[in-house]
Amino acid sequence: MLISRSVNLVKHISKHVKRKNTLINNQPVRLSSHAEWGYREDTSNAKSKKNYIIAAEIFGGFAWWWFLYRLWHDHMHLVGHFDYPDASKWTDEELGIPPDDYD
Known about the structure:
This protein is mainly alpha-helical and 103 residues long. It has helices at 2-21, 46-73, 76-79, 92-95; strands at 37-38, 41-42. The chain has a two-stranded antiparallel sheet.
């Protein structure tokens, strides 16, 4: 997940650096009126956007495969390395139950 998030971060940083170098008189650009953005989607870089989505899906799929593989083959990390004790063999004293004649 970290890699898939960092791909988008690198994309936005590179766009910002490119845009910062093309400003005239170092005037800030308002994102609401910038011609590069359409409503809810980036209309200028459709192919590069698709590449980032594919890369994020690949890294996310690998992360899920790794998690499920380790869960299946190394499940002792979650459930422990020791046998679970049989509670039917415990005495009342071990369970904290007072004796019947206790007042």
